[in-house]
Amino acid sequence: MNEGRIIKGIGGFYYVQLANGSIVECRARGRFRREGNAPLVGDFVRILPQQNGDALVDVILPRRNALIRPQVANIDRLIIVLSASVPAPDWLLADKLIVQALPLGIRPLLLLNKCDTADAQVMQSFQADYARLDTMCVSAKTGMNIAALRERLSAGVSCFAGQSAVGKSSLLNAVIPGIALETGGLSRKTDRGRHTTRHAELLPFGSGAVLDTPGFSLYDPAELSQEALDACYPEFGTLPQQCRFAGCMHLTEPDCAVKAMVERGGMTAARYARYTALAREFEQRRKHRYD
Question: What is the mean pLDDT of residues 193-199?
């Protein structure tokens, strides 16, 4: 039985790269889907030799982590790509992806692409809202900060995620010359992106790898406790421990240290408003968990 890593999955077939670099096309055992545990790109697996023409994914080895959207496993860094021009950045989607990544031990890096054609208000919001997070302003078109990004991605496994047409594939083409990923653009009618990347694919790079994934605009993160949600906001620090009430949601409670910090300007009003939307969403899920 051989071991390897799934680098791509298309139409029920999984492409597993073995230690010697060879790639084996496999089917997955039916029990995985019956158990609700289908293989994911990034999984380390054991495969059986070809039987009736198809090799089989037989065992999924323990995962360090797994993302819901995009559906990938064993990730070190989530690269959240936003556009500085069009399409308009979905800040709430970015916050949801941060909240998905951090509890799993995945480090988020926010990239603002298309900074050569940046809208001044977008740049200001990006820099102010995410001042306490890891960020970079880049341009796949001009090469702005691409060398620095290439260095950041040279170790570990980094997964690119974000809306369609923000330039994920263009950035990867700039970072890894010669891979020639298909790139798209915006629909003239809607200013929304066309999905050019149709499946997640692991691309070897440096001593690690990068994952290109399809763009998406909707995502609802899994339920989080209030304590876990607080830990996703570096602006909060240890302030939740100073609130009058244990489990304070930092919404309407009196003597809330987080709200006092926001009022002092320690967090932008826009980012706090998105936090309150997420906090209320998670509260409703907890209330209706057993409905």
Answer: 55
